[in-house]
Hints:
There is one protein chain. This protein is an alpha/beta fold. 47% of the residues lie in helices and 12% in strands. The chain contains 19 helices and ten strands. The strands form two sheets. Strands 1, 2, 3, 4, 5, 6, 7 and 8 form an eight-stranded mixed sheet that branches. Strand 5 (172-174) and strand 6 form a beta hairpin. Helix 1 (18-29) packs across helix 10. The radius of gyration is 27 Å and the shape is elongated. InterPro entries: Acyl_Trfase/lysoPLipase (IPR016035), NTE (IPR050301), PNPLA_dom (IPR002641). This is Patatin-like phospholipase family protein.
Amino acid sequence: MSQCEYGLVLSGGGAKGAFEMGVWKALRECNYSLGAVIGTSVGALNAAVIAQDNFDLGMEFWSNLTINQVLNLNREMTNTYLNQWSKENFDVFRNGFLNILFSDGLDITPLRENLNRLISEDAIRKSPIRLGLVTVDLTSLTPRQMMIEEIPEGQLIDYLLASSALPVFQKQEIDGKTYLDGGFFDNVPINFMIEQNFNKIISVEFPAIGMRKWVREKNVEIITVNNSQLLGGTLNFDTERIQQNIQLGYLDAMKAFGAVDGKYYYLDTQNNNTIYQKFQKQLGMPLSNPKQRKKMLSLLQLPETADQNAILAALENLQKKTIYKNRSLPLSLLEITGKNLGVSRLENYPIDFFFQALLKQLNTLLAENLNVLENPGIIKTFFTPSSDNFLRFNFITFYIVFLSIRNDLAPDRELTFMSKFTPEVSLSMITIFYIHELIKH
Length: 441
């Protein structure tokens, strides 16, 4: 094993496994060299595809996957899973298995047929990326952690299905022994990977029913890739959901690998960053537009004589009141503004293109909300002390009303008006002012 090679660990979780395909895409883009890949349940199936190293085939399989390509549906048992077990904890799920152990279970013949088309056992055995999987021998009540060389010739797909044998599926039998999903022993087999002498490990983990073993070895570098938003249910093979999960896996992995930055968005600050560099330098400078400068200083509660240091300090003070505290101020301002404007999240944005996305979304929202000022009750709400009605307004309403208000308000009315602004709203307003400043110059 090369010192630069990583071991990849893949968790089980049914349809959530689409996330792991996105991680694989990121691994390839970031040129990670894999020496082994070990998975449990659907993670074992994905591990086989990765060990085979046919990326296009794997992506095509997942992109076109439906539940009918996994199961011959038995309506009664499917409903039991969806309505009861999938909503309970692991013990309830395990106990439910005991009640149906000797019943027919869900027929996974379609999955076996698809694996026969997808998986080349010969290619995997010849691959420089070693394959491993986890299952449980129910006959002897013992876990089986097996590398490819321990799996008998011609039985790879049998053992892949054994690793994926959820209780609601038909019993998986090999040589007279019944096998159970590997998640009943270890759904995230990091320890097994360490036993293969890897001290650099990438672990893909998401919430799923199963057991999790504590990592015994401390002197191991582990990069963990977690999902940043919900992936859906274990048997949710909706095409749109699968595509979203593939994209999410790709983006969350790119962030874990340090290829993109951001807390909420995925922003590449290393390339196409000319505008971003100018934004960083300009931030805190007094605005050239007198009206916008006065409005900005009002938001920051600063005098007209405030210099760049004072403005930056006030911006940082507001930032500390958000979930973006202790992060890069320029990047945080852009993310807060993007979220307030509703800019699409699941994209890999070169940072300068994110400025374009912000402006495009702002212009769209302004065009859709031009009639805001036709309702006098809206402006009245902003000047009514202790009014909670403004809470129903979205950011663009705040923005339009703020721009329409005169700069010579009486101090008490200005204080009432400004009290309605959250730190996120104020920071987004100021960010837009600075973006407009960039456009002018």
